[in-house]
Amino acid sequence: MLEKRINVTNTKKLEEAIKKAEGRATARTVDVRSIILCLDLIKVPKARLNGTKVEYDGGEKFPNAYKYRPESTHWKAENVNGRWYITDIWRDTCPNRNTSMYVEYSEAAKAWILEEASKF
C-alpha cells in the first residue's frame, strides 16, 4: 500500500512508485503512460467522476500448458474532484482471464451513463 496517494500528473513520484513495486520485473509491467491511457478510456465527464475507483490487475489469457501463474503489476486509482490519484501499486499473480481493468463508478457517473444511454 502506498503511504500517500499520487496524482497521475506527478510523473516523477509515480515512476518511483512503479519502480519500487516492480523491482527487477521485465514482463507484464506498467508505466505512467499506460496508466494514463487506461484512465482515459473512461469517457464520463470529470464533474461526474468524483468517487469513481479503478482497479487494474494485468489479467490476460494464458495457455493451459502454463505450469505456474505469472505475475503482473497491479494498481488502484480513485478520482477525487475530477483528478485521478493512484492509491496502490504492487506485483501479484496475473489472473487468467481477458479483462484486466474494473471500474466502480460513482452514483453521479452511473446516472450520467444511464442518461446518455437513453438518448437516440
Which range does the strand content fall in? 25-35%
Task: Please tell me what the overall shape is.
Answer: flat
Largest sheet properties: 5 strands, antiparallel
Distance between the termini: 44 Å
- Spatial arrangement of strands, main beta sheet: 1-4-3-2-5
Q: How many domains?
A: 1
What is this structure's SSE topology?
Blueprint: E1 6-7, H1 11-22, H2 32-40, E2 53-56, E3 71-80, E4 83-93, E5 101-104, H3 107-117
Antiparallel strand pairs: 1-4, 2-3, 2-5, 3-4
Q: How would you describe this protein?
A:
This protein has 120 residues and is of the alpha+beta class. The chain has one domain (6-117). It has three helices and five strands. It has a five-stranded antiparallel β-sheet. The mean pLDDT is 93.
Sum up the structure in keywords.
single chain; 120 residues; alpha+beta; five-stranded antiparallel beta sheet; 3 helices; 26% strand; flat
Provide a quick synopsis of the model.
This protein is an alpha+beta fold. Helix content is 27%, strand content 26%.
